[in-house]
Amino acid sequence: MISKTYTPQDIEEKWYKYWIDNQLFTSTPDDTREPYTVVIPPPNVTGVLHMGHMLNNTIQDVLVRKARMEGKNACWVPGTDHASIATEAKVVAMLKERGIEKKDLTREEFLAYALEWKDKYGGIILSQLRKLGASCDWDRTTFTMDDHYYESVIDVFVDLYEKGLIYRGIRMVNWDPQGRTAVSDEEVITKEVQQKLVYINYPIVGQEGEFITIATVRPETIMADAAIAVNPNDERYTHLHSKKALIPLINREIPIITDEYVTMDFGTGGLKVTPAHDPNDYALGIKHNLPVLDILNDDGTLNEKAQILVGQDRFAARKAIIKLLEESGNLVKTEENKSNVGFSERTNAVIEPKLSLQWFLKMDELSKPALENVMNDTIQLYPPKFKNMYRSWMENVHDWCISRQLWWGQRIPAFYLQDGTFVVARNKHEALEKVQHEKLLFAMTEADLTQDEDVLDTWFSSWLWPMEVFKGISDPDNADINYYYPTNDLVTAPEILFFWVARMIIAGYEYKGEAPFKNVYLTGIVRDKLGRKMSKSLGNSPDPLVLIDQFGADGVRTGMLFSSPAGNDLPFDEKLVEQGRNFSNKIWNAFRLVKGWTVTDTAAEASNSMAIDWFESKLNVTLVEIEDLFGKFRISEALQAIYKLIWDDFCSQYLELIKPGYEQPIDRATYNATINFFEKLMCLAHPFMPFITEEIWQDIRERKEGDSICIASFPKAGSVNTQLLTDFDTLFEIITNVRNIRNSKQISPKTELPLTIKTTDATRFQTFEGLIRKMANVSSVTYTTEKADGVQFLIKSDEFFVNIAGEIDVEQEKINLQKDLEYQTGFRDATLKKLSNEKFVANAKPEIVDRERQKLADAEAKIKALEEQLSNL
Questions:
Q1: How far apart are CA 699 and CA 133, in angstroms?
Q2: Does residue 584 contact residue 555 with C-beta atoms inside 8 Å?
Q3: Which terminus of the chain has fewer CB atoms gathered within 10 Å of its CB, N or C?
């Protein structure tokens, strides 16, 4: 017995357990079936479910569930990313709470704490995805620090190094002082920040009382200045060429150089050149052979080379040095200035440009196949608008800084000898063999080798994800990689298109000679009603698990997808998930209605047979539309088509057409057809609403243990009777008009009204006359070729008259119609006057003139109809 109200909490846990117990999400290679493979964008091991995850994983689940129902061998691989910077920060914070400092631990001790943290918190988000209904093959869960995965990352590093593509060198990098590590260009978020532009006088050596003024937003770095540069064409400074200036406060001499790089009209036209702390200054320093003086420690405090303010944080030093410059008489003025500042995506610390000895991967040649095969649509991006962004980045790709100054991650497999030289090998044993055979140092032992302290960038591991989840690097010819690779569809966010998606494509062509996936569906950002990105700091992001508790997983899933076209942001409103919950309730109540009918073996009425044929055609038309939308990755529109089919066409129209009278039975043929429709509709909706559809599908008819809608067939389109669809459109228009007349005249829905149809082809209406009587509650339907009494409405070339005589106050109706006629006449006359104005017609835009002409035509039609209604009273 189906319960009166739908309570998602009663069924969601039950059916998820059933799916897992019956291994319905488990996939193994099967050459008799086409594989359909999706790999999850691995969330950080530090993560918990947020709205972006909800959207992304719902879309993946829709695609996977549909493929599974289509008979494909669907395999959705879950997993997590070790997230070097974020996880290490969490572990360091945990240790501080225990009174332990990282610097007091050995690497092995720290990693033991990191694994403890990961084991406790690392799987939270994956367990939360089960609440959403994610149909992942959980037996395949992969972690980017699993032994096989770790080894694959090391193998790739060694291979690329041996190919000459990885090198070690001193380069200007983006330094995160909070994480104390380098980060890639793609992990730097640029924000416009209000800063002080500080004007400073630098005394000219040997010229008492003369200064050159420079303007900077970073006065705390003046102690690292190597020169002052001016434009050679700037006549203000011609007399200072080849002179020297003194750095204020520390009185160190620096040369005044000329270079056309300097912009004469910015600031004062004088530029402090600080090669250690600015990438452009570094390039100038190389050009002019200037010294490099790094005055910052890794944590962003000033070191001894600064001479003053040693140990102070860079931002505290900035405030302090302005005061010192003022006291020394070297401060000219300060101005408010907006400028772009880079922030670490990982810690939100202000990035410090820093010269650092790092490991780099050459990207120019390596990335060419990844550019070519997206541009030629071998790999398709949805929506295609992202191709231009992708091309722009790939055509200007820089060498990738792949080393990170952390302990959590895959340790760089470089082993140093005591003289500072190194070998690259998979482990210390192989490194020793290389040293002995390549350098002929046979007395060397493993104890004489020291491994590099740094780890690899997290993205250097996750770029192997579509391959190594199937052990395609560590075991390159195994059955899984040969069957499941390349994967089919990747669903991810646009913000990681470059430093994850592009790099996976690069790795796919380098190690498998083909693309890692065929399609990339790029979701939008979930925003609040004000258009702001949802975040914990703003407090504008609901807890997804609370939403699931309130509205049910199916309600949340459909609510998220109702307005989520690919690549466009989703303006989230709780009303969306309310609509999703209401959709679930509508389906539930419709099923209760059908299951509550008494069935008889009498013959079906002709009107019921016609309604069945109509809905069959309506269903098939919608199935064609849905397949087309899925093919174009228009997932939101596919859901809307299903919603309309179930809510409007099935519940509001079909069920009303065939519903028996109060306490009357329904014939078995109609009932069986309706149950079959319900089963198809549940299969159609299942990818979007897995829980309620399973519950109803199981109740529709007897099922065997292990049966599930998960593996039922996804409906396929059949034939369509287009004429019947057209006829029923007319039927529903008649019903709507009659009901509107009742409402406008305040006539009870129970009152039967006679209907007359003025037509030259009565047979078209006679076929569904019974449905007109039933649905519009009319006492009779008569046909004529002349005008008839009653309120008139038009449908194409046919006229319809509803006789309401005796049901209304005729005199009051005349008054109401006369008022309406006067209003419409006034409106028509005003529009006519406007169109009679030659200046208006000549000068207004054509579309505005057309709109006025349409208003005139509408008014004249309404006037004619009102006059006819008045004449009939």
A1: 20
A2: yes
A3: N
Q: What residues does each domain of the chain span?
A: 181-353, 572-720, 742-872
Architecture of domain 181-353 in CATH? Alpha-Beta Complex (3.90)
251: left (phi over 0), alpha (psi -120 to 50) or beta: left
- Tell me which of 809 and 386 has the higher pLDDT: 386
Which pLDDT score is estimated for 1?
Answer: 61
Q: pLDDT tens digits for 251-273?
A: 999 999 999 999 988 889 999 99
Dist CA 125 CA 231 (whole Å): 56
| Lookup: tokens for 630 | 């899925």
Q: Specify burial of residue 365 (Cβ count, 10 A radius: 0-12, 13-18, 19+).
A: exposed
User: 572-720 has which CATH code?
Assistant: 1.10.730.10
Q: Decide if 181-353 and 572-720 have a common fold.
A: no
Kindly indicate the confidence band of residue 526, based on its pLDDT and cuts at 50, 70 and 90: confident
C-alpha distances in Å from residue 126, one per residue of 23, 473, 570, 839: 17, 25, 23, 69
Element at 352 (helix H, strand E):
strand 352-361
Q: Is 862 helix (H, G, I), strand (E, B) or coil?
A: helix
DSSP states along 675-692: HHHHHHHHHHHTTT-HHH
pTM score, whole prediction: 0.84
Give 203's strand partners. 211
What CA–CA distance (Å, rounded) separates 521 from 367?
Answer: 21
811 token code pair: 């005199």
Tens-digit pLDDT profile for residues 692-729: 999 999 999 999 999 999 999 999 999 999 999 999 99
| Nearest alpha-carbon partner for 817 in 855, 799, 791, 856 | 791
Helices (H), 163-250: none
